[in-house]
Every structure is written in C-alpha cells, then in structure tokens.
Amino acid sequence: MKVGDLSPDALRRQVGEGNLLIDLAPFVARLRCDVDSAVRNLASMYAAFSVLPSDHFADFHIQVMREPGLRRWYRPQARFFFDGQPSFTPLPSDQAFAMIEWGLNWCVAAHAHQYLIIHAAVIERDGRAALLPAPPGSGKSTLCAALVHRGWRLLSDELALIDMDTGQVCGMARPVNLKNESIDVLRAFAPEAVLTPPVPDTLKGTVSLMRPPLASVQRRREPAMPAWIVLPRYTAGSPPRLVAHNRARTSLLIAEQSFNYDIQGLRGFDALCAVLDRCECLQFTYGDLDDAVRAFDALAATH
Amino acid sequence: MIAWSPNEISRFRIKDFGDDGAVVYDIASGDTHAVDALAMELLQMLMERAPRTADSISADLARLLEGETEADVVDAVDRGLAQLQRLGLVLGSAH
To answer: What's the confidence (pLDDT) of residue A209?
Structure first.
C-alpha cells in the first residue's frame, strides 16, 4: 500500500488518528496531523512511499497539530511535536507541511548517530554519488532538483547519511525544498515537476516542496558510493567552471557542514577521511541550469 | 635560538593529502584542523630527526627545493612551525 493508494478521506482519517507510518528507508516515521493543507501536500509529495501497518516499529513519532484557542479562527497556527512533546514554537498553519519536512530533518540530524550526517544534497548515477555540501544560498537544492530531472537519482537534498562501516551514502529520496527565486527557475526548467503551492513569509522566505521522482523513491533503499564532492556556487551570468578544490579544506568544510561530526569522535574523522579518499573534490560555479546539466553529464562520463 | 621537536604525536590522527596539505584530528580535544603542505613536510622532517632549529630545517629544505636559497624559505619555515606549534604538534625549547 502506498500513500497515493489511500483516498483523501482515508488518508485524512489515518493521519488524523496518528496511524500513518511512512517507510522512508532507512527510517520509519509515524505521522499525526490535523491540518488539511498539510495532509493534501503529504498525499501529493509522498504518493509513492509505502505505508506500513500501524503496529510497525517507528523511529520517529511526529505530530503537527493546530494550536487550540481563539487564534484557531483568525490566525491559525500549528505546532510540531516529537514523541508527544512540543519541540518548536508554533508557526502559521499554512507552513504545516514544511514543518513536517523540517521536523523530519531535525529528527534525523539529532538522533540518527549511527550515520555521519552531512548537510548536503546527494545525487547518484551509475552507482556513483555526488555530494553537494553547501551553506544556504549556494543553489544546492536548485541544482539537485534540476539534475534529478535529467538522469540523476535523488538520494537527498538536505541530509547525506554516511554509513561509517561501509562508506556508502544513504538518502530517503524525500521532497526537495525549494526557496524564493528557485521555485520559478525550477518550474521553467522542469515543467513536469510537481510542486506544492508556494508558502510565503516563512523563516526561509517563500518555500515550495518538489515531489521526488518516482524512480528515486522506488530505489530509496539503495545506497551509493561517494565519488565526488562538488561545492556548488550559483553566480548569475557565470559560465560553468568545474575546478579542483583543495582536499584538506574540503575535509574541514564537510566537518563543518556535519550535524554530528563532533559527537562521532575519532570514528567520525576516520569515516570522513575514507569518504575523501574515494572522492574527487571540485568547486562548481554556474549561472545556468542547462550548463550545469552538461557539466555533470561530463563528470558522470569520467572513469 | 629555539629547537623544535614533535609533541605527543600519538595524540593526533593525521590524514595527509600530499600537495593539498593534511587534516589533523586532536584526539584529546576532538578538534580537527587543516595543515598546509609545507607544515606537513616540516613535521615529517622533525619526526625523522629532532630537536632541530628553524635554521637547520631551512637549510635542508632549501636543498630539497632545488633553486631555492635558505633565505627564500626561512619565512615559510617560520610560518609553518608557528602553525604546527599553534596546533600543539611541535614544541619549542631554548637551545
């Protein structure tokens, strides 16, 4: 049974009762939500994800619920709960689906310490993964969203989960978080992409989530071996430039972009070095997504 | 004159990237640092023979880098030793 197999009423009832368990692989999330717009977006964005029986083990128990009181009618808000405890301040209820996404990211980053977790997009082709670590504003998610519509498989647009025993990287193939100008850029580049209605005035500006490609969701259990670390930098009007990046400085940058490197100790350092040993380190400056696709195609063609 | 020696090398895990320098993990503090390639070369020289003064290291390094004079490399050696000292990888003592 997939999320998309449930009728709107059945989904609303199941998630309203807190009995919707989604198989994100490698995690299972139990969701409860009473915000209609979020449930509609859930149906659209997670349509291809499996629903598990309600008595199945879940790693994360998440609720996004409307706040009670008079505000409910004139300025409705919703709050995120983790394991039944309120975890963040309430936000306007039209941000409820984004809260589920941000909250899931937080759950993984704060708890899944069996992995070395890097703030990075991850895409794969022919068994080789490219990690795109970057601070906000670098165009990481836009580039990732574009490439997964041109032959690359999506593992994640936010969290690279490095298995410290095998060196492989896992992802959940969850929706891609687009912000501000990148929403229209992606719509123009990939008209077939399915996006949630943009929500303005969030902490990150206007946000919209992009449905992950079906093939990526179907292969979400399949890890990949990192082959490239590419530091993207969007510069309007810039020609594409893919140049080697210093490996020692790349190592530090990856450590800085990790959510849990500090708590992994020596094992984390060794895992980081093992990833660097396997990867070509590059900096990619670009100003046009078609140029970026060509540059990544050329990268994938190298042996 | 200061003579330099490696310091508690077992406290560190070093990943050498050759011309790209290295990263060093300090097991005691949990900190990770980048070390440039020249500083790594100096550390290697000190691990082979210590204690040594900056002048002695500069003379050897100039021989290794054909075409460079001792005067050319002395500033770089001072900077490299300062970097290693800051990270706790070398210790200086009065000579």
So the answer is: 98
Asked if residues A222 and A156 have their Cβ atoms less than 8 Å apart, the reply is no
Neighboring chain A residues of B15 at a CB cutoff of 8 Å: 251, 269, 273, 276
Q: Name the pLDDT band for A303 (thresholds 50, 70, 90).
A: confident
A188-203 residue pLDDT tens:
999 999 999 999 999 8
CA of B21: which chain A residue's CA is closest? A248
Looking at chain B from residue 3 to 32, which residues have their Cβ under 8 Å from any Cβ of chain A?
A: 13, 15, 17, 20-23, 25, 27, 30, 32
pLDDT tens per residue across span A274-293: 999 999 999 999 999 999 99
> A43 with A187, same domain?
no
CATH number for position B46: 3.90.930.60
**What's the average model confidence in pLDDT over A219-232?**
97
- Count of CB pairs separated by less than 8 Å, A with B: 43
Pick from B11, B20, B31 the residue to mutate for testing the A interface (most A CBs within 10 Å): B20
Cis before residue A136, ω within 30 degrees of 0? no
HEC readout, B6-23: ECCHHHEEEEECHHHCEE
Q: Which residues of chain A make contact with B21, given a CB cutoff of 8 A?
A: 246-249
CB contact under 8 A, A248 and B32: no
The ipTM (two decimal places) reads: 0.90
Written as six digits, the tokens of B39 are 């500083």
Closest CB to A246 among B20, B27, B30: B20
Q: In percent, how much of chain A has pLDDT > 70?
A: 99
Residue A149 phi/psi, 5-degree rounding, is -100, 5
- Tell me if A229 sits within 8 A of A280, measured CB to CB: yes
Are residues A172 and A222 located together in one domain of the fold?
Answer: yes
Domain residues for the domain of B36 are 2-94
